[in-house]
Amino acid sequence: MFTLSELENDALIEIFNIGVGHAAASMSAIVNEPVRMSVPSISFIPRAEAARLLGANGQDAAPERICGVSQHYAGAFETEAILMFPEDKSLEIVRLMVGEAVPLKELTDMEQEAMCEIGNIMLNSCVGTLANIFQRELQGSLPQYHVGTSDEILTATASGSQANTVVLMLHIDFLLEKHQIHGYVAFVLAISALHDLKDQINLYIARVMGQT
């Protein structure tokens, strides 16, 4: 399995924490309350294992349904980026955006558009930070909305041979004054893209080390 050194791993977590910090500032403006986000851990795992992790809902229970927003990025490396929450949390997030006064039916009608906006903010903050720090371009597609099991979403968004892809999983904590929501950002990467990513991380480390 693809791995990073401790230094590479720490550098990548630092980069993503900068990205979710930018996303938190944007989200704070939308929900009118302080939002703190952090990336406590990342991992590189096979696609099937990522689906099991995201869909875990007790040993005998049916796989948990997930709400996801995906965007395809190309440039310094190619990846499908997906923001995912448990489906039962998506309306809670949309409610935060539009306020308590909106009726449930209208809220449900708004869900897809609102989640795409949140996904666009989150994914572009993470990927935009990577592009800025790596000093390389990454162009993104329009956000796509998905609801289903984690396996269905990861299969629908995987490009090329699924057997030759690895998922970079970011565990993201969202902390608001009255809410604590856990989500994931998954980057589906081919093996060649993983090595491109590793090369970019090491170029970044070399620049930082050269400046100190």
Automatic annotation (TrEMBL):
Keywords: Chemotaxis. It comes from the Bacteria. Signal peptide: none annotated. CDD domains: CheC_ClassII. This is Chemotaxis protein CheC.
